[in-house]
């Protein structure tokens, strides 16, 4: 016999099977009437099923009674026999029809609830998750609901009902030894099945984990297809994937081998039980205590019990597998969201759109602080730019403003209201963003632009596309607005993706705008072309611009220079140049780099600090 997995490697010590079954019940409550009707049909089908061997006994005894009764009574019994068989089949099919809506609605509700919960979980969770593994776990988990309901209603409950009815027949008509032999066999069968299956579940859980891990590795290698090709690491990816599948293969072989052990044991128990009961029945017939019809009845009942009992062992295993899969989903649903609205939190009341950061500290991990005492205000309709080297903490400001995280100290206010005290939905409704990494949905260009305001008309879509200088490009495509952009927008260039994101943000028409390196993927010509448009969009809006290129923020009302999470300089463009500090050094360096890349960028008649085409843009 195979050795069990060491306790240190077991992964299902707290499966909480009963807890998960209880957690599934609310998904059935919506159609509780249908569920009750399906169970009623199930009971009627089993009553008819148990009536079949009773009728068969009467037919056999009638034939054995003599030729005088053969022409009348067996005909009626034969008709009754056929009617019972028909009733059992009809009620079984009616049960399936009635219960179908219950089963598939439960799957739908669980799938929707899981996706809703995933959207409620924090950015911290989503930055750490593995998309491939999550996808596989959710697929198996939601499918497990259908599996469990299917087996419970179509396999477990029917067998339990049939056991009860057979027990009534045996206790009512035969010696107690028949009942003891029959249900003693069933008890031994169940005990053996449960014990071996519990042992085998270790292998199944390991298989699940390795399956998700392999799927995640394959998913990651395909998502990063270009990177794999850049470094020629196809072999590395395949070897990593194959190593995981090798472990999975070992667990799968162990699982299959142990299942054969289980099946042989189950077969032996059933064979011994049937032999014992039939021996008792044959002895009764030989002694005259039982009729030949009784022998036929006992045999028919044993067949009706033990044939589904053989399947019940498989059903039990499948239910245990499904519960293991379901456990992943319910553990996910029990994960508490990091960002939650306070009880009875009001919606944000937007008046002028002023934003204030007051003494904000923040860290992702305590040992790695990001922001230290950040304090600034953006007056309504003003434009504040934040500049600094990579890692200075600039983009963290936008994440805090959207309340993807809460500050570890200090607070953020909009029109004097702490954003932690208002609903997240109302907060995010008033803020629009053009991020540096413009990830698009694998859908049409129309869908991606309309995402800013799904109810917008086609005329409005065309207007913002023109403002973002992408309308002509869209209309030049063979499929126009219906062109699909590919996974994460990979069919578009970086500049095209960014212009789609700009159009999307424009369509939302928010009062507060955030441009996080919004033109970082645009060439100089396109950047200058969009600059004035962004200035128009930002006019009369409270605007936060996070930028690396200083030429994009020269028109800001205030520029904040950050270094290692602290604001080290602040002021307008001219003031900062005049102070000769960090900003002035950065400006001089970028102007020199720009002149090296494009000698025409600094024409002799352009005064330093006033580059041509500078606009209010991010």
Short recap of the structure:
By secondary structure, this protein is of the alpha/beta class. The protein contains 19 helices and ten strands. The strands form two sheets. It has a six-stranded mixed beta sheet.
3D structure, described in words:
- With 618 residues, the chain is an alpha/beta fold.
- It folds into 3 domains: 17-334, ABC transporter type 1, transmembrane domain (ABC transporter transmembrane region fold, Up-down Bundle), CATH 1.20.1560.10; 350-430 and 511-618, P-loop containing nucleotide triphosphate hydrolases (Rossmann fold, 3-Layer(aba) Sandwich), CATH 3.40.50; 435-509, P-loop containing nucleotide triphosphate hydrolases (Rossmann fold), CATH 3.40.50.
- Helices cover 62% and strands 10% of the residues.
- The protein has 19 helices and 10 strands.
- It has helices at 17-24, 26-29, 32-65, 73-120, 123-128, 131-173, 176-223, 225-231, 234-287, 292-334, 394-401, 424-429, 445-450, 458-467, 471-476, 494-508, 524-538, 573-579, 582-597; strands spanning 355-365, 368-378, 383-388, 409-414, 417-418, 431-434, 512-516, 542-547, 558-563, 566-571.
- The strands form 2 sheets. A 6-stranded mixed β-sheet has the order 6-7-8-3-9-10.
